[in-house]
Write a structure and sequence with these properties.
single chain; about 240 residues; alpha/beta; 2-enoyl-CoA Hydratase, Chain A, domain 1; six-stranded mixed beta sheet; four-stranded mixed beta sheet; 9 helices
């Protein structure tokens, strides 16, 4: 089963999450396929940058509750995006939830259409945005993040840009990204790699310091009775027991 589509144009490798039936939820298969594709790109001198995008109306709905990835594998994927010696550009024309927000935060440049919506839904199923905090906390506004982490409410692309989750938003995301991709094609590979290293140093310090603790927290929460109730309620399309 294909869960990731690939294409290349003038040195830009496009990786499209391609499991629209599950709203591109992060299954173990999808996480593995994306990690392998990124490794391929890193070793290919013909690739200047990577665009991470999607098919369907959702960029990524978060973890696949029926086939969740191993927490260590997901941490490894996020770190691979951050460490990749190539710029990774997120192109979003749909909705982003939970773990998908971590993918977005790991990317270097992020653009979304004005119709996209965003939400950290973890608290609503009894867990916390633990692992995705590794790239998120160093790159976003703390006050905005506190509100969205704690309430799980949806917010729009303008708010995502204000909070630092997006580089830019526009009615035509491809028009927004056209000058970005042109600039990356004009940049020297060595210059891109070393400039990205400067930009990601603080993010990687967070991975080095906190990855083991946050991975353990995620595993503990997902195994808890409240999370089981929250995930069951989500799958049954009902409110969990704690809703007032």
């Amino acid at each position: 089963m294909t869960v990731l589509a690939r294409a290349r144009e003038r040195g830009i490798e496009t990786l499209a999450l391609d499991s629209p039936d599950t709203r591109n939820a992060l299954s173990s298969v999808l996480v593995g396929a994306l990690a392998d594709a990124l490794a391929d790109c890193a070793g290919d001198p013909e690739v200047r940058a990577v665009v991470l995008t999607h098919t369907g109306t959702t960029f990524c709905a978060g973890a696949d509750l029926r086939d969740p990835p191993d927490p260590d594998a997901f941490v490894g994927l996020l770190r691979r995006i951050v460490e990749l010696p190539l710029p990774v550009v997120a192109r979003v024309t749909g909705h982003v939830r939970a773990g998908g927000m971590g993918l977005l935060a790991a990317c270097d440049i992020t653009a979304a259409s004005t119709t996209s919506t965003f939400a950290f839904t973890e608290v609503r199923i009894g867990v916390a945005p633990a692992v995705i905090s590794l790239p998120l906390l160093p790159r976003t506004d703390p006050r905005a993040l506190a509100r969205h982490y704690l309430t799980g409410e949806r917010f729009d692309a303008a708010e995502a840009a204000r909070a630092g989750l997006l580089t830019a938003a526009g009615d035509d995301v491809d028009a927004v990204l056209a000058p970005v991709l042109d600039g990356l094609r004009r940049a020297a590979p060595q210059g891109l790699a070393e400039t990205k290293r400067l930009l990601t140093a603080r993010v990687l310090e967070t991975f080095d310091r906190d990855a083991a603790q946050l991975t353990a927290l995620s595993a503990r929460l997902f195994a808890s009775p409240q999370a089981r109730e929250g995930m069951t309620a989500f799958l049954e399309r009902r409110d969990p027991a704690w809703v007032l």
